[in-house]
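Quick illustration, no need to memorize.
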Amino acid sequence: MSGLYGLLRLYDGIKPYRLEMGTKNINLNGKTTTSLYEFWGNDLVEQVAKDLGNGGGVLIDCCSKEYSKAIVKAKLLKEKGIRVVTCVFPGPSVYAKRARGMMCRFIVNENITDVEKLKLFQGFEDDAEYKFAGRESSDDKFVFHRCAMQGKRKKPRKN
């Protein structure tokens, strides 16, 4: 998801930009709004619902809180029969951002179609891995903690 382009597909081309969802008083396409949340309104939610067949689907939310607020409007999605499962990575934002990307890569590479299999995510970094925190999690919120790897070989970095 992009504050400027909206929902993106795998091969959509975009140009680099810096624009936060909370940016105030902006003008896009001749429409002045107080924020990007107002600009996008429910359009993003409607598109997600359409992509998921307007019911019965599952949305895995790996967004930052800023972007999640724009798309995960639980009431609207629930009305459309869509379950939202949010993946949470507590800790410094620099690690959380990387973990969200690793989770998305995990979902695609492992062809995850069963929400329960998200709990297998380990997301190896140079010196850490992620572990599912069952006690802190719920049916719709999966929490993963970053843990130092002890006694394990580091995964080689890809250049």
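Residues 8 and 134 are 31 Å apart (CA to CA).
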